Amino acid sequence: MVEATKQRIQSLDRGLQILEYVASQRTPVSLASLAQLLGVEKSSAHRLAQTLAGRGYLKQDDKTLGYELDGRVFALANRLASRRNVREDARKYLRRLAEKTGETAHLAIRGPAGAMLVDHEFGSNPVAVTTRWGSAEPLHCTALGKALLAGMSCGELKEVIGQRLKRHTKNTITRFDDLAEQCRQIELEAIAFDREEFREGMSCMAAPVYDFRRRVVAAIGISSPIERVDKNSIKKLAKAVKECAKNISADLGYQTEEL
What we know:
By secondary structure, the chain is an alpha+beta fold.
């Protein structure tokens, strides 16, 4: 009886390994690859894969006969997503970020009027200028806003923002080509900066938060007087912000390409 229980657990574990591996691949996975992954004979891998296919979690590609995810996986993911609240999931991380950096931490989502603040937490060194909950800031010249635009092309930016980038300070980006390049870098480096682009004397940084669909659903960041952020502190602060966003994203089901 004990041995049978162990066997059932092993089978479940192997089935989950298959799902995770197939989900990480961009093309259908061959039976031989699954057998190699599990360290079992092809016949054993075939039984496991067919069991998952029978339950609607996998399907076979008509041409290659390799396995890929099927609708049941997406149905479960959508059910989970409908029950998650970004603000609730981010609350503890927002608090930790403020405590770790000493700066005011913000959480924002993209709204019709720009980057809309949905939560914040004061650090030990709160700034005098604090955006009110529910208010919106420009997308193109704030760290939170640019993090929400991560990876967008020039055409996508014009569709989201409009045809004009309003200048707020001498450092404000006013060319879509320049903004698109920054958005490309933000997607690659997972961090956005705003040094007096929206408000004089203010320095901000933010990171994009992703959900299980790999979509940017929020941005989390910190703001402080520009004199408090120098070359020695910027890397440490950016690391803390990125780590915070990474943890929230993981809670929302996001997985990196390496997983």
